[in-house]
Specification:
Distance between the termini: 72 Å
Largest sheet: 3 strands, mixed
Order of helices and strands: EHEEEEEEEEEHEEEEHEEH
Strand order of the largest sheet: 1-9-8
Structural class: mainly beta
Strand content: 35-45%
Shape: rod-shaped
CATH architecture of the largest domain: Sandwich
CATH superfamily of the largest domain: Urease metallochaperone UreE, N-terminal domain
CATH topology of the largest domain: HSP40/DNAj peptide-binding domain
Number of helices: 4
Number of strands: 16
Radius of gyration: 34 Å
Mean pLDDT: 85
């Protein structure tokens, strides 16, 4: 039997989500057509003189009879009258074949697809091996997966007013379009919004995972004078940041909170 082959194929996250058909060129050995894989010129064979056509050679050793595969004909029972000019008697030639690979929806990095009979040709007309296509999913600009989970994760920065008051934000939807994310009033950095059933399809069926949106609060790098005065007023109106006890001497140290960062304090 011929050797199995491996082919590494990278696909996009969109292709992994929807499924895809990809054409690949696979280098391999193929059966020699002029000799039909026999290695004999014009396919002409005659009975192996070594084993008399049995494919095995029997010998006596220590009172036992031992049968081994005939090395002259490799167990076929026949040998070539003359070697094939195309393959030099090997029965195989170097080749490259284009194959259409169907990638099912929901795959993840590490999934292996088996294509039966598309490996190297077998020796002297033997059956071919198989082709194994190993998939890897390319990194995406917006979304990522954790292992083989069907959930899609992304990060969404929201402004401080939106985090305080609530609102609506938009994120790109995998494959095109937009998704609407409802931001609850009082949202904290690290809060999560889960959009059910619109993640990756499960490869074995049973619906799809979720889109998991991780919220961060966006702090402006620069403030105008008017904006700074407004934030200072708000800082006095809202509850102050809590003190944090730290190690040395048991002294309490003021934490660096949101308004400190917004106003440029330490």
């Amino acid at each position: 039997m011929g050797a199995d082959l491996r082919y590494d194929l990278e696909i996009s996250l969109e292709e992994a989500a929807s499924g895809a058909s990809r054409a690949i060129d696979v280098p391999r050995t193929a059966q020699c057509k002029p000799c039909r894989g026999t290695g004999a010129k014009d396919g002409e064979l005659h009975t192996c003189p070594q084993c008399q056509g049995r494919g095995q050679v029997v010998s006596g050793r220590g009172g036992f009879m031992i049968a081994t595969t005939c090395r002259a004909c490799m167990g076929r029972g026949a040998v070539a009258k003359a070697r094939c000019d195309s393959c030099g008697g090997q029965g195989r030639i170097e080749d490259k074949k284009r194959l259409e690979i169907r990638v099912p929806a929901g795959v993840h990095t590490g999934v292996r697809l088996r294509v039966q009979g598309e490996g190297d040709a077998g020796e002297l007309g033997g059956p071919p091996g198989d082709l194994y296509v190993f998939l890897s999913v390319a990194q995406h600009d917006v979304y990522h997966r954790e292992g083989d989970s069907p959930d899609l994760h992304c990060e969404l920065p929201v402004s401080f007013p939106t985090a305080c008051l609530g609102g609506v934000a938009k994120i790109a939807r995998l494959g095109g379009g937009e998704l609407t994310v409802e931001i609850e009033p009082g949202t904290q950095p690290g809060d999560v919004v889960r959009l059910s059933g619109i993640g990756m399809p499960r490869i074995r069926g049973g619906g799809a995972g979720d889109v998991v949106v991780h919220l961060t609060v966006r702090v402006p790098e620069r403030l105008s004078d008017e904006q700074r005065r407004a934030v200072e007023v708000l800082s006095r109106l809202l509850p102050s940041d809590p003190d944090v006890s730290t190690g040395r001497g048991g002294k309490k140290k003021k934490s660096s909170g949101f308004f400190d960062k917004l106003l440029g304090g330490e």
